[in-house]
């Protein structure tokens, strides 16, 4: 159980860091760091570019992994 807890804690730290970076890459009202990578290419207020859509998908995937790790760590803590 200790090895699983350590693995989940390391995964939590990694996903937290990547999730923070991914959120900072998103375009805000005035643009963002994603403009450097092609997110600002699209024209029009309602549409987003391919880079922004892919960034959204990756961010959602990391958020789901982060959530699952949090729940698993909570369950391990409850069982112990």
From TrEMBL:
<dbReference type="InterPro" id="IPR004692">
    <property type="entry name" value="SecG"/>
</dbReference>
<keyword id="KW-0812">Transmembrane</keyword>
<dbReference type="GO" id="GO:0015450">
    <property type="term" value="F:protein-transporting ATPase activity"/>
</dbReference>
<dbReference type="GO" id="GO:0005886">
    <property type="term" value="C:plasma membrane"/>
</dbReference>
<keyword id="KW-0653">Protein transport</keyword>
<dbReference type="Pfam" id="PF03840">
    <property type="entry name" value="SecG"/>
</dbReference>
<comment type="function">
    <text>Involved in protein export. Participates in an early event of protein translocation.</text>
</comment>
<protein>
    <recommendedName>
        <fullName>Protein-export membrane protein SecG</fullName>
    </recommendedName>
</protein>
<keyword id="KW-1003">Cell membrane</keyword>
<keyword id="KW-0813">Transport</keyword>
<keyword id="KW-1133">Transmembrane helix</keyword>
<feature type="transmembrane region" description="Helical">
    <location>
        <begin position="6"/>
        <end position="25"/>
    </location>
</feature>
<comment type="similarity">
    <text>Belongs to the SecG family.</text>
</comment>
<feature type="transmembrane region" description="Helical">
    <location>
        <begin position="57"/>
        <end position="76"/>
    </location>
</feature>
<dbReference type="GO" id="GO:0009306">
    <property type="term" value="P:protein secretion"/>
</dbReference>
<keyword id="KW-0472">Membrane</keyword>
<keyword id="KW-0811">Translocation</keyword>
């Amino acid at each position: 159980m200790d090895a699983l807890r350590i693995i989940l804690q390391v995964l939590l730290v990694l996903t937290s860091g990547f999730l923070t970076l991914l959120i900072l890459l998103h375009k805000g009202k005035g643009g963002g760091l994603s403009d450097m990578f092609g997110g600002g290419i699209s024209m029009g207020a309602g549409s987003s570019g391919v880079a922004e859509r892919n960034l959204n998908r990756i961010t959602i995937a990391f958020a789901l992994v982060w959530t699952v790790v949090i729940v698993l760590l909570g369950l391990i803590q409850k069982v112990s």
